[in-house]
Amino acid sequence: MVARLVAAGHQAFIVGGCIRDTLLGHPSKDFDVATSATPEEVKQLFRRARIVGRRFRIVHVHVGRELVEVTTFRASHAASPHATAPPHSSEQARRSQRGMLLRDNVFGSLEEDAERRDFTINAIYYDPERDELLDFVGGLEDIASRTLRIIGDPATRFREDPVRMLRAARFIAKLDFALDPATAAPLAQLHALLREIPPARLFDEVLKLLMTGRALATYEALSRHHLFQHLFPDTAAAIHADSRWDAFVRQALINTDLRIKNDQRVTPAFLFAALLWPAVAVAEARHPSAGPQELALQQSAADVLTRAMRHIAIPRRFSAPAREIWELQPRLERRSGRRAWQLLEHPRFRAAYDFVLLREQSGEDLGGLGEWWTRFQAAGEDEREQMAAAVKGPAPPRRRRSRRRKPESGPA
Ligand code: ATP
Ligand code: MG
């Protein structure tokens, strides 16, 4: 891969996460290559190559079963003396009024490429031809001292791309690094810039934040640096009003981390269901009490999702099942007659049952509901009949208010 680029007369290095992770003794999955070749030149050299991205034109090259992301050396500043625009356009790095980089396709030298990367530990280059590491920004020292440090002036770099704030939270949690104090300082002022990130990009980032096996630590880092409130504002408000929701979110993330550790499947739908549940429950409790509980839940779910989507573009394939998980919560309580058998057949039963267990684990009293379903699933047909018969008949439509002591009571 690198050899072919070098043979064609280009410079090429492995860089980024895989060098960082390898130096730290972590397994690393994807490879990033930095090269002096333009995207077009890269594409011509490899059969299975595709130019992707707009903000950032990179080439995806498939090598065997691996996907390698190849980026052309870039300069970070339009004013850079060595920067050369791509030959086919007069493109410059474009910035918004607040200093956000809108496009970043100004090509540059290797040293400039190092400077425009986010953190020092992500800017270590490896030359496989010479078996040599190149470090222009002190990344190796920061690896040794386990420090996450942004390259250049922290406030400027976070303004250029506010997603770097989320990446900071992700890396300190994932690597168990300390955030350099000068890097941390501007976060207290700049965190609200996250609101300007397109929801589609935030969705990608949120998955990376929560599905890497260190979700709890990441949540703590996000909360400490005022970032969580911009990803899930309604949930943050619920947590602020009642700390039992904090316990609920933590429990959800503890379970997620455990599942990843045990190689069990983690679905974004379940995660979003859990992260938005505090908002749904608060909205439901505020809902006018007339009418059936199901309707209040449905409307609250719809409202919460609509509001959440303004920040994070959750695709339908995840939001629809999240909604089903929520709507199954009261249904799992009404399990008399043949209902329990029908519920077992529901495609979202397993997730909804896990969700009941999660609610109970975080301290909510559901009258042994999780335990009942655990037994019911394991039971033979006779025992199931007995269990269903022992459940009190279809309860008369309950007054929702009577279930909660306070309109905004938490999960306990
Ligand atoms: P991982 O793959 O474990 O998520 P990574 O560091 O490889 O971590 P990628 O998103 O794959 O992250 O990016 C590859 C490299 O590109 C990074 O190591 C960094 O050098 C650079 N990079 C990525 N995102 C940014 C950004 N927003 N600003 C500046 N440089 C970035
Ligand atoms: Mg990577």
Model description:
This protein has 412 residues and is α+β, with helices and mostly antiparallel strands. The protein has two domains: 148 residues, Beta Polymerase, domain 2 (2-Layer Sandwich), CATH 3.30.460.10; 193 residues, cca-adding enzyme, domain 2 (Orthogonal Bundle). The protein is 51% helix and 10% strand. It has 21 helices and eleven strands. The chain has a seven-stranded mixed beta sheet with strand order 3-4-5-2-1-8-9, with helices on both faces. A hairpin with a 5-residue loop joins β6 and β7. α13 packs across α15, α14 packs antiparallel against α15 and α17 packs across α19. The longest helix is centred in the C-terminal third of the chain and has 19 residues. It starts with a helix and ends in a 22-residue tail after the last helix. The C terminus is likely disordered. The site of magnesium ion has 4 residues, from loops.
